[in-house]
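Next comes the chain:
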Amino acid sequence: MGILSTIMGFLGFGVGIGIGLVIGYYLFIYYQPTDVKDPVIRPLVEQDSKTLQRLLPEIPLWVKNPDYDRVDWLNKFIENMWPYLDKVRFCVLLCSIIFLDQLLTDQCSQAICKTVKTIAEPIIAEQIPKYKIESVEFQALTLGSLPPTFQGMKVYTTEEKELIMELSLKWAANPNITIAVKAFGLRATVVDLQVFALPRITLKPLVPSFPCFAKILVSLMEKPHVDFGLKLLGADAMSIPGLYRFVQELIKDQVANMYLWPKTLEIPIMDPAKAMKRPVGILSVKVLKAMKLKKKDLLGGADPYVKLKLTEDKLPAKKTTVKYGNLNPEWNEEFNVVVKDPQSQALEFNVYDWEQVGKHDKMGMNVMPLKDLTPDEPKVMTLDLLKNMDPNDAQNEKSRGQLVLEVMYKPFKDDEIPNDTDDPNAVQKAPDGTPDGGGLLVVIVHEAQDLEGKHHTNPSVRILFKGEEKRTKPVKKNRDPRWEEEFQFMLEEPPTNERLHVEVVSTSSRMGLLHPKENLGYVDISLRDVVSNKRINERYHLIDSKNGRIQVELQWRTSS
């Protein structure tokens, strides 16, 4: 009998403890104290120092840091659109707002799904075996009625082809997220979600094709703050002592291990090869002859020559020799041009009458789309010369002569296509035929700012190196011109002790002898750094200019 009493006593004690814990837990969750008072609202100027110190984290970044800009327009847009976005992911909305491109929105959606899965899978895989849980899946996922807000945005300016933004995100949400646990038939609901994050978004490389960047890189500048309640069996499981802190640290560590700067989430937007317009082939053009050209000279003849180039190409046009006093000239001259996009590019050629004094007269032109060519198949074409490419211009019906060409498009093989698309700033190798011990000096003139001439501002850049001169095209009436032109110098040895002279000049567009040319500034660049670093891309202040600056990129390419 004593043994039975002892057993019953232990059972009663255990049952009592269990019932007491359950009652205490529910009282802790659902009991509302009666002494809760509304907070006292006072202006900031009336707060003491301790209160201000406590409120400091809540002050927007654009107040604390002058380099952050206000983005009230974005917050207002999201606030007005939020009621209509019940089941749309917020980040997809943000992508569509900022970048206005459906393709990008789809890419963001896929990336977000992949990110959520990547974060959740290791946590679930680690935890569910301990509790014999078969699976965890979402049954409902809506964002609620409270939109997120951005406390500020900071934009970084670099000399590279990229755009860097930092956004301060705060979101105190009321979402409806229901998670089904396949084991005990349980369902958990996420409530009172709060997310504070400082993401850095990098768009790179910037390219001349819409949407003007090839990929998005996202990283977090600090560990995110994530706070939420988890209703399980009608009660908030996060109120269990110790569990809240454990879950918070677990989420922070998982996200930080994958995306805390310098680690990044990469979202591809475009094919890098197409975005960067890398060479994909060579177009061989042989200018054979012209027939029945019209007279241009006073003595009844003409001095024709042909200029040809590819559209969307900034390289200088190729030129044939001049055939003096000939209306049916024969050239038989061959040229090779690099093709970057055979579907959109076209071969444009112009026939001119050479003049010793004054402007050369244009005799006619035409355009040949590359998509009409069959790869690796030579084709002889006889094209009529037109005044312009306007199909409605009646003057194109006049006979201006014909031009005979032989063309062949040779696409690169897979192993011949340049494989530097991952890093747009990578320095290429020097071409075949580069002297041993020497290399190729590449000068890329990007842009200039704050140029100012006394009489005119039509800037062009003049480059002098070892007695050789190169020039960019002039940009008319522009104080902030952009050229993006590339020049090359083949050298027998590294230019360690050499200097490159870069001069910005302005030429008057009007006829006359008064102030025809004007110097807008110059800079002498030492080439020692480019030989050791292979590449430098800097902005230089122009000498003899008040505020003028020029951005020049230098590369030293060797065969090794």
The longest helix spans residues 2-30.
